[in-house]
Amino acid sequence: MSRWKLALAVVVVVVVGILGWRLLQRAQNGAKDGSSAADAPIPVTVVPAVTQDVPVYLTALGTVQALNTVTVNAQVSGQLEALHFAEGQQIKQGDLIAQIDPRTFQSSLDQANAKKKQDAAQLSASKSTLARYEDLIVKHFVSAQDLENQRQTVRQQEALVAADEAAASSARTQLGYTRIVAPITGIAGLRQVDVGNLVQANGSTGIVVLTQIHPINVMFTLPAQNLGEVRAAQAGGALPVAALDRTDSHVVAGDGVLKVIDNQIDVSTSTFKLKSEFPNANGELWPGQFVNVRMLVRTVKDGLVVPTQAMQRGPDGDYVYLLQADNTVKMQPVQTAGEADDTHILIGSGLKVGDKMVTEGQFRLKPGSKVQPLAPGEVPPAPTAADIQKAAKQVTSGRGGRH
Predict the structure, then answer these.
(1) Overall pTM > 0.70
(2) Closest Cα to residue 370, out of 131, 66, 44, 80?
(3) How far apart are CA 210 and CA 287, in angstroms?
(4) Mean pLDDT estimate for the chain
Protein backbone atom coordinates (compact mmCIF):
# COMPACT_ATOMS: atom_id res chain seq x y z
CA MET A 1 0.00 0.00 0.00
CA SER A 2 1.27 3.48 -0.90
CA ARG A 3 2.12 5.97 1.77
CA TRP A 4 -0.57 8.48 0.80
CA LYS A 5 -3.36 5.82 0.93
CA LEU A 6 -2.22 4.80 4.40
CA ALA A 7 -2.33 8.41 5.57
CA LEU A 8 -5.85 8.81 4.15
CA ALA A 9 -7.07 5.72 6.02
CA VAL A 10 -5.66 7.04 9.30
CA VAL A 11 -7.43 10.37 8.77
CA VAL A 12 -10.76 8.62 8.13
CA VAL A 13 -10.44 6.52 11.29
CA VAL A 14 -9.64 9.62 13.35
CA VAL A 15 -12.64 11.54 11.94
CA VAL A 16 -15.01 8.63 12.59
CA GLY A 17 -13.71 8.34 16.14
CA ILE A 18 -14.26 12.04 16.81
CA LEU A 19 -17.80 11.93 15.42
CA GLY A 20 -18.63 8.86 17.49
CA TRP A 21 -17.31 10.49 20.64
CA ARG A 22 -19.41 13.64 19.99
CA LEU A 23 -22.56 11.57 19.47
CA LEU A 24 -21.91 9.63 22.66
CA GLN A 25 -21.48 12.88 24.62
CA ARG A 26 -24.72 14.26 23.27
CA ALA A 27 -26.58 11.07 24.16
CA GLN A 28 -25.21 11.14 27.70
CA ASN A 29 -26.09 14.82 28.13
CA GLY A 30 -29.57 14.18 26.74
CA ALA A 31 -30.03 11.29 29.16
CA LYS A 32 -28.96 13.50 32.04
CA ASP A 33 -31.42 16.22 31.00
CA GLY A 34 -34.18 13.65 30.54
CA SER A 35 -33.58 12.05 33.90
CA SER A 36 -33.61 15.51 35.42
CA ALA A 37 -37.03 16.16 33.86
CA ALA A 38 -38.24 12.72 34.80
CA ASP A 39 -37.21 13.26 38.39
CA ALA A 40 -39.51 16.30 38.63
CA PRO A 41 -42.77 15.22 40.39
CA ILE A 42 -45.92 15.32 38.28
CA PRO A 43 -48.75 17.34 39.84
CA VAL A 44 -51.90 15.20 40.14
CA THR A 45 -55.21 15.40 42.02
CA VAL A 46 -55.79 12.61 44.52
CA VAL A 47 -58.98 11.63 46.39
CA PRO A 48 -59.38 9.00 49.11
CA ALA A 49 -61.80 6.08 48.90
CA VAL A 50 -64.74 6.59 51.29
CA THR A 51 -67.75 4.64 52.49
CA GLN A 52 -71.39 5.57 52.13
CA ASP A 53 -74.78 3.92 51.80
CA VAL A 54 -75.17 3.09 48.12
CA PRO A 55 -78.62 2.52 46.57
CA VAL A 56 -78.60 -0.21 43.92
CA TYR A 57 -80.90 0.40 40.96
CA LEU A 58 -82.08 -1.61 38.00
CA THR A 59 -82.75 0.46 34.89
CA ALA A 60 -84.79 -0.19 31.77
CA LEU A 61 -86.70 1.51 28.99
CA GLY A 62 -90.39 1.78 29.84
CA THR A 63 -93.65 2.62 28.11
CA VAL A 64 -96.40 4.62 29.79
CA GLN A 65 -99.75 2.84 29.64
CA ALA A 66 -103.18 4.10 30.70
CA LEU A 67 -104.67 2.35 33.73
CA ASN A 68 -107.88 1.81 31.71
CA THR A 69 -108.83 2.65 28.14
CA VAL A 70 -112.49 2.40 27.09
CA THR A 71 -114.05 2.97 23.68
CA VAL A 72 -117.53 4.32 24.42
CA ASN A 73 -120.08 2.74 22.07
CA ALA A 74 -123.82 3.13 21.68
CA GLN A 75 -125.74 0.10 22.98
CA VAL A 76 -128.83 0.92 20.91
CA SER A 77 -129.19 2.21 17.36
CA GLY A 78 -130.62 5.61 16.65
CA GLN A 79 -129.94 9.19 15.67
CA LEU A 80 -127.30 11.00 17.76
CA GLU A 81 -129.16 13.92 19.29
CA ALA A 82 -126.43 15.64 21.35
CA LEU A 83 -122.85 15.36 22.62
CA HIS A 84 -122.17 16.54 26.15
CA PHE A 85 -118.36 16.57 26.29
CA ALA A 86 -115.44 18.52 24.88
CA GLU A 87 -112.43 16.81 23.34
CA GLY A 88 -109.62 16.57 25.87
CA GLN A 89 -111.99 17.16 28.78
CA GLN A 90 -111.63 15.35 32.10
CA ILE A 91 -114.83 13.32 32.48
CA LYS A 92 -116.02 11.69 35.69
CA GLN A 93 -117.59 8.28 35.88
CA GLY A 94 -121.36 8.58 35.35
CA ASP A 95 -121.23 11.92 33.51
CA LEU A 96 -123.52 12.19 30.47
CA ILE A 97 -121.51 11.87 27.25
CA ALA A 98 -124.11 11.66 24.48
CA GLN A 99 -127.86 11.45 23.90
CA ILE A 100 -129.62 9.31 21.30
CA ASP A 101 -133.16 10.20 20.18
CA PRO A 102 -135.28 8.40 22.84
CA ARG A 103 -138.78 8.68 21.29
CA THR A 104 -138.91 5.24 19.68
CA PHE A 105 -137.69 3.57 22.87
CA GLN A 106 -140.11 5.59 25.00
CA SER A 107 -142.97 4.34 22.81
CA SER A 108 -141.87 0.75 23.27
CA LEU A 109 -141.82 1.24 27.03
CA ASP A 110 -145.28 2.79 27.00
CA GLN A 111 -146.64 -0.15 24.99
CA ALA A 112 -145.07 -2.65 27.40
CA ASN A 113 -146.58 -0.84 30.38
CA ALA A 114 -150.01 -0.73 28.71
CA LYS A 115 -149.90 -4.46 27.94
CA LYS A 116 -148.93 -5.15 31.52
CA LYS A 117 -151.88 -3.14 32.83
CA GLN A 118 -154.26 -4.98 30.48
CA ASP A 119 -153.07 -8.40 31.59
CA ALA A 120 -153.05 -7.29 35.23
CA ALA A 121 -156.74 -6.30 34.92
CA GLN A 122 -157.63 -9.69 33.43
CA LEU A 123 -155.69 -11.40 36.22
CA SER A 124 -157.62 -9.43 38.84
CA ALA A 125 -160.96 -10.50 37.29
CA SER A 126 -159.84 -14.11 37.12
CA LYS A 127 -158.81 -14.07 40.77
CA SER A 128 -162.26 -12.72 41.76
CA THR A 129 -163.96 -15.49 39.79
CA LEU A 130 -161.71 -18.06 41.43
CA ALA A 131 -162.65 -16.75 44.86
CA ARG A 132 -166.38 -17.11 44.04
CA TYR A 133 -165.87 -20.63 42.71
CA GLU A 134 -164.12 -21.65 45.93
CA ASP A 135 -167.14 -20.43 47.92
CA LEU A 136 -169.68 -22.14 45.63
CA ILE A 137 -167.86 -25.47 45.53
CA VAL A 138 -168.81 -25.96 49.19
CA LYS A 139 -172.52 -25.63 48.23
CA HIS A 140 -172.04 -27.84 45.16
CA PHE A 141 -173.11 -24.99 42.83
CA VAL A 142 -169.98 -25.45 40.60
CA SER A 143 -168.17 -28.57 39.57
CA ALA A 144 -164.68 -29.44 40.67
CA GLN A 145 -163.61 -29.32 37.01
CA ASP A 146 -164.73 -25.70 36.62
CA LEU A 147 -162.85 -24.75 39.78
CA GLU A 148 -159.64 -26.37 38.53
CA ASN A 149 -160.01 -24.69 35.10
CA GLN A 150 -160.33 -21.30 36.80
CA ARG A 151 -157.22 -21.94 38.85
CA GLN A 152 -155.28 -22.72 35.64
CA THR A 153 -156.58 -19.52 34.07
CA VAL A 154 -155.27 -17.50 37.03
CA ARG A 155 -151.87 -19.17 36.77
CA GLN A 156 -151.64 -18.41 33.04
CA GLN A 157 -152.55 -14.78 33.53
CA GLU A 158 -150.02 -14.45 36.37
CA ALA A 159 -147.37 -15.70 33.93
CA LEU A 160 -148.57 -13.16 31.34
CA VAL A 161 -148.23 -10.33 33.87
CA ALA A 162 -144.68 -11.51 34.77
CA ALA A 163 -143.76 -11.58 31.06
CA ASP A 164 -145.22 -8.10 30.67
CA GLU A 165 -143.07 -6.90 33.58
CA ALA A 166 -139.95 -8.37 31.95
CA ALA A 167 -140.82 -6.73 28.62
CA ALA A 168 -141.38 -3.39 30.34
CA SER A 169 -138.06 -3.75 32.18
CA SER A 170 -136.28 -4.52 28.90
CA ALA A 171 -137.90 -1.50 27.21
CA ARG A 172 -136.90 0.65 30.18
CA THR A 173 -133.32 -0.55 29.88
CA GLN A 174 -133.25 0.18 26.15
CA LEU A 175 -134.57 3.66 26.86
CA GLY A 176 -131.83 4.15 29.45
CA TYR A 177 -129.20 3.24 26.84
CA THR A 178 -130.18 6.35 24.87
CA ARG A 179 -128.34 8.29 27.59
CA ILE A 180 -124.67 7.32 27.12
CA VAL A 181 -122.68 7.90 30.32
CA ALA A 182 -118.97 7.58 31.12
CA PRO A 183 -118.10 4.09 32.39
CA ILE A 184 -114.83 5.33 33.94
CA THR A 185 -113.17 8.58 34.97
CA GLY A 186 -110.76 9.68 32.28
CA ILE A 187 -109.67 12.06 29.55
CA ALA A 188 -111.88 12.28 26.46
CA GLY A 189 -110.10 11.82 23.17
CA LEU A 190 -111.18 13.02 19.73
CA ARG A 191 -114.87 12.45 18.99
CA GLN A 192 -115.52 9.75 16.40
CA VAL A 193 -119.01 10.82 15.31
CA ASP A 194 -120.93 14.09 14.89
CA VAL A 195 -124.39 15.08 16.07
CA GLY A 196 -127.14 14.11 13.61
CA ASN A 197 -125.52 10.89 12.45
CA LEU A 198 -127.21 7.55 12.80
CA VAL A 199 -125.20 5.43 15.23
CA GLN A 200 -125.31 1.65 15.34
CA ALA A 201 -125.34 -0.46 18.47
CA ASN A 202 -121.81 -1.65 19.30
CA GLY A 203 -120.36 0.04 16.20
CA SER A 204 -116.74 -0.46 15.26
CA THR A 205 -115.67 3.19 15.64
CA GLY A 206 -117.47 4.18 18.84
CA ILE A 207 -118.27 7.70 19.95
CA VAL A 208 -115.14 8.61 21.93
CA VAL A 209 -112.24 6.91 23.70
CA LEU A 210 -111.81 7.56 27.43
CA THR A 211 -108.34 7.12 28.91
CA GLN A 212 -107.78 6.87 32.66
CA ILE A 213 -104.43 8.47 33.63
CA HIS A 214 -104.89 8.98 37.39
CA PRO A 215 -103.19 6.69 38.37
CA ILE A 216 -101.18 5.46 35.39
CA ASN A 217 -98.97 2.47 34.63
CA VAL A 218 -95.42 2.21 33.28
CA MET A 219 -94.52 -1.11 31.68
CA PHE A 220 -90.89 -2.24 31.33
CA THR A 221 -88.79 -5.36 30.97
CA LEU A 222 -85.65 -6.66 32.70
CA PRO A 223 -83.21 -9.48 31.86
CA ALA A 224 -84.17 -12.88 33.19
CA GLN A 225 -81.08 -13.00 35.43
CA ASN A 226 -82.56 -10.15 37.52
CA LEU A 227 -85.77 -12.05 38.32
CA GLY A 228 -84.52 -13.62 41.56
CA GLU A 229 -83.15 -10.32 42.84
CA VAL A 230 -86.38 -8.47 42.07
CA ARG A 231 -88.61 -11.12 43.65
CA ALA A 232 -86.47 -11.21 46.79
CA ALA A 233 -86.54 -7.43 47.03
CA GLN A 234 -90.32 -7.30 46.49
CA ALA A 235 -90.83 -9.75 49.32
CA GLY A 236 -89.51 -7.07 51.66
CA GLY A 237 -92.09 -4.49 50.55
CA ALA A 238 -93.09 -2.31 47.63
CA LEU A 239 -90.13 -1.32 45.46
CA PRO A 240 -89.82 2.40 44.61
CA VAL A 241 -89.80 3.22 40.90
CA ALA A 242 -88.89 6.50 39.19
CA ALA A 243 -89.50 7.57 35.60
CA LEU A 244 -86.83 9.73 33.95
CA ASP A 245 -86.74 11.48 30.59
CA ARG A 246 -85.02 9.91 27.59
CA THR A 247 -81.67 11.54 28.45
CA ASP A 248 -81.73 10.47 32.14
CA SER A 249 -81.23 14.13 33.09
CA HIS A 250 -84.62 14.85 34.65
CA VAL A 251 -86.97 12.86 36.89
CA VAL A 252 -90.41 13.04 35.29
CA ALA A 253 -92.17 11.18 38.11
CA GLY A 254 -90.49 9.71 41.17
CA ASP A 255 -93.38 8.39 43.25
CA GLY A 256 -94.12 5.08 41.54
CA VAL A 257 -94.14 1.57 42.99
CA LEU A 258 -93.78 -1.86 41.45
CA LYS A 259 -97.21 -3.51 41.23
CA VAL A 260 -96.86 -6.73 39.25
CA ILE A 261 -94.14 -9.11 38.05
CA ASP A 262 -95.29 -11.09 35.02
CA ASN A 263 -95.78 -14.81 35.61
CA GLN A 264 -93.51 -15.97 32.80
CA ILE A 265 -90.24 -15.19 31.01
CA ASP A 266 -90.27 -14.38 27.32
CA VAL A 267 -88.11 -17.17 25.89
CA SER A 268 -87.45 -15.25 22.66
CA THR A 269 -85.81 -12.31 24.46
CA SER A 270 -84.96 -13.87 27.84
CA THR A 271 -86.69 -11.00 29.62
CA PHE A 272 -89.70 -10.64 31.91
CA LYS A 273 -92.28 -7.88 32.13
CA LEU A 274 -93.04 -5.65 35.09
CA LYS A 275 -95.83 -3.17 35.76
CA SER A 276 -95.37 -0.10 37.95
CA GLU A 277 -98.01 2.40 39.02
CA PHE A 278 -97.70 6.18 39.48
CA PRO A 279 -100.32 8.51 41.03
CA ASN A 280 -99.69 10.96 38.17
CA ALA A 281 -101.64 13.65 39.99
CA ASN A 282 -100.33 16.43 37.77
CA GLY A 283 -100.34 14.47 34.52
CA GLU A 284 -96.55 14.29 34.15
CA LEU A 285 -96.88 10.94 32.38
CA TRP A 286 -98.93 10.42 29.22
CA PRO A 287 -100.06 7.17 27.57
CA GLY A 288 -97.63 6.02 24.88
CA GLN A 289 -94.73 8.05 26.28
CA PHE A 290 -91.27 6.44 26.47
CA VAL A 291 -89.34 6.91 29.71
CA ASN A 292 -86.27 5.50 31.40
CA VAL A 293 -87.25 3.47 34.45
CA ARG A 294 -85.09 3.32 37.58
CA MET A 295 -86.12 0.83 40.27
CA LEU A 296 -84.46 0.62 43.69
CA VAL A 297 -83.88 -3.02 44.64
CA ARG A 298 -81.58 -2.70 47.66
CA THR A 299 -79.15 -0.42 49.53
CA VAL A 300 -75.53 -1.39 50.23
CA LYS A 301 -74.63 -0.20 53.73
CA ASP A 302 -71.19 1.45 54.05
CA GLY A 303 -70.22 0.65 50.48
CA LEU A 304 -66.71 1.66 49.34
CA VAL A 305 -66.93 4.30 46.58
CA VAL A 306 -64.43 6.18 44.43
CA PRO A 307 -64.88 9.01 41.89
CA THR A 308 -65.78 7.85 38.41
CA GLN A 309 -62.85 9.76 36.85
CA ALA A 310 -60.37 7.70 38.90
CA MET A 311 -61.27 4.53 37.02
CA GLN A 312 -59.05 3.47 34.14
CA ARG A 313 -59.57 0.54 31.79
CA GLY A 314 -56.69 -1.62 30.61
CA PRO A 315 -56.28 -4.91 28.76
CA ASP A 316 -56.55 -6.79 32.05
CA GLY A 317 -59.60 -4.93 33.34
CA ASP A 318 -60.28 -1.86 35.49
CA TYR A 319 -57.58 -0.23 37.58
CA VAL A 320 -56.68 2.99 39.40
CA TYR A 321 -53.40 4.80 40.00
CA LEU A 322 -52.87 4.30 43.72
CA LEU A 323 -50.72 6.78 45.65
CA GLN A 324 -47.87 5.18 47.63
CA ALA A 325 -46.20 6.43 50.85
CA ASP A 326 -43.17 7.71 48.89
CA ASN A 327 -45.40 9.80 46.58
CA THR A 328 -45.11 7.38 43.68
CA VAL A 329 -48.04 5.63 42.03
CA LYS A 330 -48.81 2.08 41.06
CA MET A 331 -51.50 0.48 38.93
CA GLN A 332 -54.02 -1.13 41.30
CA PRO A 333 -56.53 -3.58 39.73
CA VAL A 334 -60.06 -3.23 41.11
CA GLN A 335 -63.41 -4.96 40.76
CA THR A 336 -66.44 -2.66 40.40
CA ALA A 337 -69.87 -3.50 41.79
CA GLY A 338 -72.00 -0.92 39.99
CA GLU A 339 -72.60 2.82 39.92
CA ALA A 340 -73.09 4.58 43.23
CA ASP A 341 -74.47 7.76 41.62
CA ASP A 342 -73.66 9.99 38.66
CA THR A 343 -70.14 10.73 39.96
CA HIS A 344 -69.04 7.68 41.97
CA ILE A 345 -68.54 3.95 41.45
CA LEU A 346 -69.04 1.20 44.01
CA ILE A 347 -65.91 -0.93 44.52
CA GLY A 348 -66.24 -4.66 45.12
CA SER A 349 -62.58 -5.43 45.80
CA GLY A 350 -59.04 -4.08 45.30
CA LEU A 351 -59.18 -1.04 47.60
CA LYS A 352 -59.76 -0.18 51.23
CA VAL A 353 -61.05 2.87 53.05
CA GLY A 354 -58.59 5.78 52.94
CA ASP A 355 -56.63 4.60 49.89
CA LYS A 356 -55.78 7.63 47.77
CA MET A 357 -56.08 7.43 44.02
CA VAL A 358 -55.39 9.83 41.17
CA THR A 359 -58.45 11.49 39.64
CA GLU A 360 -56.73 14.07 37.40
CA GLY A 361 -53.43 13.88 35.52
CA GLN A 362 -53.37 10.13 34.82
CA PHE A 363 -52.38 10.59 31.17
CA ARG A 364 -48.81 11.56 32.24
CA LEU A 365 -48.36 8.65 34.63
CA LYS A 366 -46.82 5.22 34.48
CA PRO A 367 -46.12 2.76 37.29
CA GLY A 368 -43.51 4.22 39.65
CA SER A 369 -43.95 7.84 38.52
CA LYS A 370 -43.10 10.47 41.12
CA VAL A 371 -46.09 12.71 41.75
CA GLN A 372 -47.02 15.84 43.63
CA PRO A 373 -50.40 15.00 45.25
CA LEU A 374 -52.93 17.83 45.28
CA ALA A 375 -56.41 18.12 46.74
CA PRO A 376 -59.36 18.67 44.36
CA GLY A 377 -59.30 22.26 43.15
CA GLU A 378 -55.75 22.82 44.40
CA VAL A 379 -53.09 24.05 41.92
CA PRO A 380 -49.31 23.48 42.08
CA PRO A 381 -47.45 26.33 43.83
CA ALA A 382 -45.70 28.86 41.61
CA PRO A 383 -41.93 28.19 41.19
CA THR A 384 -39.65 30.18 43.50
CA ALA A 385 -36.62 32.20 42.40
CA ALA A 386 -34.37 29.42 43.66
CA ASP A 387 -36.25 26.87 41.55
CA ILE A 388 -35.91 29.06 38.47
CA GLN A 389 -32.16 29.60 39.11
CA LYS A 390 -31.64 25.88 39.61
CA ALA A 391 -33.47 25.07 36.39
CA ALA A 392 -31.40 27.67 34.53
CA LYS A 393 -28.16 26.15 35.80
CA GLN A 394 -29.28 22.71 34.64
CA VAL A 395 -30.06 24.05 31.18
CA THR A 396 -26.73 25.93 31.02
CA SER A 397 -24.71 22.95 32.16
CA GLY A 398 -26.53 20.78 29.66
CA ARG A 399 -25.68 23.15 26.82
CA GLY A 400 -22.07 23.42 27.95
CA GLY A 401 -21.73 19.65 27.85
CA ARG A 402 -22.86 19.56 24.24
CA HIS A 403 -20.01 21.89 22.96
Answers:
(1) no
(2) 44
(3) 12
(4) 87
